[in-house]
Fold each of these.
Amino acid sequence: MAKRRKLTNPLALTVMVLLAERSMHPYEIAQTLRRRGKEYSVKINFGSLYTVVQNLEKHGYVEVAGVQRQGNRPERTLYGITEAGRAEMVDWLSDLLAVPAAEYPVFETALSLLPVLPPEEVAELMETRKAALEVQAAALRGVLGQLGGRLPRIFVVETEYQLHMIDAQLEWIKSFHRELADATIGGIEEWKSFHETGEVPQDWQDLDEQEIVLNPERKA
């Protein structure tokens, strides 16, 4: 189990990783993230980078490493990672790679609640989602084609993973949509009855009296 950390913002980890390469000022960090396309894999608010760096400094993970002067431009403070920051970075990243976390994606939330909508409406919504995902997949393939020509593969593996996950979701949605269209998905008769009569099927009521744990890893 991953331990509780002083900082939990993935952007803080990203900053430490960049500073492990070399000392930078926040504006240079932002430029580097853009050049490497990290906004596709890390939720980045470029305006908050200074606050992130300040929080890292407060916890002793980064420190002032110097001042950069370029022509008539204002001086810029360079930050570097500390030994404590390097240890935290390695430990944090190792946890993220090795320990599966319950992330509760909003699509899973929606799927868990979908019986409140009629089957035919869900089928239409799945079609809409499929079209949107196909656009996203095409965009990511474009990004990989562009970045892959400039960066070693090790720097774009997260984009590869995103594309694989979208492709997998598309395959699942196509299969699910076929089951909806063919009315072969288990429980669809009760589902239809619920929307035709407005009454909760007895089978559903009986389920409420049972304790069913579909994913023991998520049980509190």
Amino acid sequence: MKNCILAVCLGLAGFWGVQAEDSSIAAPERINEQGDAKLPSGELLSDHVAEAEFTGMIHRKCRFLTSLCPDKCDHARDFAVFRIVKYLDYRKPGKYGDEKQEQLMVDVNPAHKPILQGADILKKVSALKPGDRVVLHWAHYYMHRDSSSFPERPVISVAPAVFSGGKTGK
């Protein structure tokens, strides 16, 4: 019985390990887009694929929390807001990943681009109009660089939603 349980646990650990390794984002020691710096390694905490409706852009002002505010802090952010219509796929291999969401906010300012967020994704998101329906794939990673660890939630892909009958969502 113990051997059977051990085999199942090892099989599941191998399955989730393959899922994280197959992702182009979880690969440790990758080089950034400019080719001049190594990216940190990361652990996949949750993976989300959902049909979503783009509701518009919002701007969050600086909250004046540092001596650099508001001129040099770079705290103000522009977000693309998506309402999650329905989940198509969801995985949470451990206990610390994000739960299913009702809304997703994506920082679209290139100066604030997260380490793992691709420029092509920001272009696609910036081109959307309120009411557009898309299929979003995003993940929640726990990244490690030197002696620090931090969360990262990049959007991996954005594609027009296809409804029954072959029509794309607008």
Amino acid sequence: MSKLGTLYGLGVGPGDPELITVKAFRLLKESPVIAYPRKKSGAKSYALQITELYVDTEEKIMLPLIFPMTRDRQALELQWNKTVDTVWGHLSEGRNVAFVTEGDPMLYSTYIHLMRLMQDKHPEVPCVSVPGISSVLGAASRLNLPLADGDEQFAVIPATENYDEMRRVLETHDCVVFIKVAKVIDLMLQVLGDLRLTDKASVITKVTSSEEQVWRNVRELAGRELEYLTLMVVRK
């Protein structure tokens, strides 16, 4: 059997291609296989968009991997196993696979599940994570807003429909970044209003990218449909 390839999880940053690390850039150049996530067949990949500046698709094996947005466990398990088998096909032939993911591969990333399942099915495969700048840090820079200083407490929280929990998080931290906020924006505006924190909040979509949108007056977002890659920063 040939030497196994390495599975790399490359964090390619929040959107601006210049925010990719030197190490991720090197591994993109060196890896023969570039894997990237898509929600469905034919869909665009945000992570690939970020890296297109650095990847010659004619020289690489481009490997689109589908990660369906569904809660159907059976459908997810079937697709995840298919995805791992596809990647394993290259690794078993000795080819390194660089899986690109927006932000950081160890923070709310599709790479986490891919790595865990690969380690479960093929524990002999080397899995290496290369950190990237997360959208959380990108948002702080874009807003020129410190996330934490001294003994202040800061949290990154997936926004949910649980009003009490969202309120508790805001009451107990000096600064909170809510990710996945698009689907619950009206509830979040209600929580902010009840705590008199509306003027302390900002919302950003696709931070640092060419498609970035920033709202410092979040009242404008009531009833609005927002992109999936949207977050809210609340700093007391």
